[in-house]
Structures are given as structure tokens and as C-alpha cells.
Amino acid sequence: MINLTTIAKFVIRKTLLILIIFWLFGVILFLSLEVSDREHLTISLTEESTSKCRGEGRAVFCEYTNFCVDRKNGAYIVNRKDISKLANVMNADQNIDFFWKPKVKSRYPAKAQYINDTLFAYGLYSPVHFSHWMFNGLLPLYSIMRSYNATRNAWLLRIHTYRHQPIRMIPQDISFLTDGKEIVFDSFDTLTEMQVLPPKVPICFAKAVVGFGNRCSLNYCENNIPAEHYEQFRKDVFSHFIHNGQWELYKQKKYKDQRELACIDSTKIYAPIVSNDKIYHTKVIIGVLQRYHTRHILNADELIDALVKQNYTVKFLNFDVGCSLPATAKLLEDIDVLITPHGNGLGDAIFMMPKTTVISIDNRFYSEAWFTYVHTASGRRFYNFQCDSGDCQVADFELAQKGLQEDGIRMSYHDLLEYLGPKYPYRLIEKYYVGDDKSGYDRYAKDAVRRVDVEKLVKFVKEIIEEWPMVKNKSFIELCEMGKCCGPWCSDALKKNVFAKGNAWGGVERPIDAETVNWKAGN
């Protein structure tokens, strides 16, 4: 006769054994997950979100706890009261400010994915324009992440994009920032493996930072990016993409867009003069960046020949064909002096060594100080180089007629010849441009083709290189105090980024010597 008690004990023992095996299997599986995966688990949240906002006006940014994102609701926090506040997620001029706050819900979803780390919510300015993307978007993002000691598990949330042109965008790998994902709201923004759309199942973060306090190095930003963040940014990009064998791995990747490495293939190297089977050269590398749509340097070949005759190695660069962030860094890493027409390419110098020199080839009648700001903050010597001679001026009829047509101006042929002549056309500007906006000629002069005074520029480059022993033994601050870090129109940039309270170089106010004159390139 079967003993029921014995059977029951047997069944219980077997059941317990099976449960223990499953429990052990679960523990082993859990421990085998990466930290980021273990923290990305489905749980029930009960604690209400909290908020803390700092700054005033354009500089407001906010911190939240238990910040959630999903496809149906977008970004939101959970609290019985509306504790959110509008924060500016852009880092540019006042016309581009974008104030945003998360939605407020009264209760959490039944289940949510949870990441025990920080989400950084930000706005992006003109991602098709490398320098705006870099100095108004990527670097402010990097700076706030450094300020909060962001881990490799942090995530990003792109709230807003200004001047969005998806068709022109090159996929940009920003994985040096984090191993986390970047949540975007439009499918055409999923350009790399890093970008993802909001999930159907809500994903909640332990913390979120919304906005950066309107920080950038330009005159229109309320707060500054510390100089040490620029240098650490540069080091992080090289460490992640270039050094220790990473560049070879990067080149072997499969690319969605062939433009990512096009600049590498198009680069030409001009070696120093060879004589009697010996190469006479210095270790100086000069970068010459040409533009092929606007601001083209007509006598770039003459400039290259003259530089090579001085026994410099010249890298002739073309970024119009396309260039990724890592490829840009690779090309600029060893350049000592970068020469380029005013524009986007001047921002590439962020990857040059500190205290190297950047020269902007400006039109005879147009120059601006935009890049003076970013380079006085990041520690590179920057000069605007204008040729005052009529020999350097080129009449760009096609560009001028296109601009006049866009402005709704019909100009006689005789006036057009004067408009493009050797003198600044004050009379015609007053005649044809009615009202306060008289910037049509400046727009033309900014983009017109140009020549460079080769003799004066090569002389200036030689003077820069001769100063290297002095530069090597001085800090960037000391160079600025000597009038040797920028010129000629850099007084406002120096005030914001070097001398005024809250500057990029430690924030301490420094006295300005009224007699210090910043050297004008080419004098």
C-alpha cells in the first residue's frame, strides 16, 4: 500500500529542487548581464518626481528625478503638482532660444523600463554646419556632462533641432560621449546605431538634466564653457577614435554614407623640396583648406608652392566632399598652422594641439570675429588675414547677381561694375538697399571668391613659426596678455573668454593692459 505521506514529501522535495535550480539559473543570468543591462529592467515606480531649477531667463536649466520617455506621451515626470519649469535647451543667440519643459502626469505607468543613471536633454543647432554643430551643440552637451560627472551609461534626449536639413546630414558618431543611446523623435534622425526612437514601453531614468544654462564661448551666450573642457573633449575624441589602434578599427566599419571618410581620400600631401638626394625640411605641417562652392581661393596653388619652398609640409584639405568627426580629428591632429577661407573649416582647428595657429583668409571688404571667440576659449592662436590690395579682389558676377535677385534688386550694368569694383560701394548700398537692412553687399563679400597675398602670408607664417620657442614657454593667458594670441578684432572675445569674470580660463577677472595691441596679421 502506497504511503501518501511519503509521496507528498517526495513531491515537495522535487519541487523545491526544481525551484532552487531555476533560482540559481536566474542569478547566473543576472550576473552575466552588463551593468547597463541590469539597470535596464522592467519595474514598478512609486516615488514622485522632484525638480530643481537653476539660473535665470535664458540660462535656466533643470534637474529632475524619475524622468520618463515613451512613444505615446513623449517626455514626462510624475507628480500630483506641476513642478516643471521652462528651461532653455539651446546654446546660441537669443533668436534661437527654445524653452521647453516635460509633461507632468499624475501617476506612473503600470510597468516601466528603468535606468539608474542620468538623461541629458538638449537642443541641437544646425547639425549640417560643422562649426555650429560643434560649438553650439556638441561641446555645450559635452561640457554639461563633464560638469555632472556623467558615466558611460548616461543617455541623451534631443528635444529640438534648429535648421534641420536631414537630406544633407552626414551620420556623425558621437559614441565617445557615452555607451548609452540618444533618443530622437523623428525617424530620419536615426543616422547611427546610437539614435533610437522613444520606446513603446516607457523608459524611466533616475535623473535628468534639461538644458545647459545657455553655455557657449560666443558673445551671445550667458555662460561659458571652461577651457579645460575643450582640451578634455579633444583628448576623449582621440582616445576613442584615433589612438591605440582605434583608427584602424574605425576605418574597417561599414558606413551608411560614403561621405564620412571622403575627406581622407581627397587629402593631398606636398612634401618639402628634394635636393641632392636629401630632403631639407622642418617638422612644420601647414594645413591649407580649400572651399569649392563659395569663398574659393583662386591662387591656392601659388600659396602651396611658396610654402613648400620654405621647406614646410603642406596638407591640402577638401572637406566639401564630406567628413566625419573622427576623420576631421585624424586630419587635423598634426597640423601646426591651418590656413582656410573664413567659414566652417575654421572650427576644425579644435582638434589641433593647444597654442597652434589658425589663419582665416577673409575677403578684402568682409571680416568677422565669430571664430575669435571659440579659439580664445579653446586655446588656439587665431588671426584674420585680409589683403587690402585691389589685386586680391575678384569680381564674382554670378554670386553678386544671385544675391541681388534674392534681395529683389535690379541694378544697371554700369552700377554693377561699380558695385564689384575696387572701392567699397557706399553710394550704391544707400541707393539700392532701403531701410535698416543694408547687409546685402556684406553677404556677397563674405562668400565671394578671393585671392591671397602670398608673399605677405608666407612671411606671416614664418614669423609665427619663429615665435614657437617663446610660445612653448608661455601659457595661453600669458600670450593673450602679450597681444600674441589673436588679432586684429579680438578685444571683445578676449574680454569674455580671458579677462572678464566668469571667463573660460578659470573665471577669475584679470586686468587688461590698455596699451597691449593685438597684432594684425600681414602687417
TrEMBL record:
<keyword id="KW-0328">Glycosyltransferase</keyword>
<keyword id="KW-0808">Transferase</keyword>
<dbReference type="GO" id="GO:0016757">
    <property type="term" value="F:glycosyltransferase activity"/>
</dbReference>
<dbReference type="Pfam" id="PF04577">
    <property type="entry name" value="Glyco_transf_61"/>
</dbReference>
<protein>
    <recommendedName>
        <fullName>Glycosyltransferase 61 catalytic domain-containing protein</fullName>
    </recommendedName>
</protein>
<keyword id="KW-0325">Glycoprotein</keyword>
<dbReference type="InterPro" id="IPR007657">
    <property type="entry name" value="Glycosyltransferase_61"/>
</dbReference>
<keyword id="KW-0812">Transmembrane</keyword>
<feature type="transmembrane region" description="Helical">
    <location>
        <begin position="12"/>
        <end position="33"/>
    </location>
</feature>
<dbReference type="GO" id="GO:0016020">
    <property type="term" value="C:membrane"/>
</dbReference>
<keyword id="KW-1133">Transmembrane helix</keyword>
<dbReference type="InterPro" id="IPR049625">
    <property type="entry name" value="Glyco_transf_61_cat"/>
</dbReference>
<feature type="domain" description="Glycosyltransferase 61 catalytic">
    <location>
        <begin position="130"/>
        <end position="359"/>
    </location>
</feature>
<keyword id="KW-0472">Membrane</keyword>
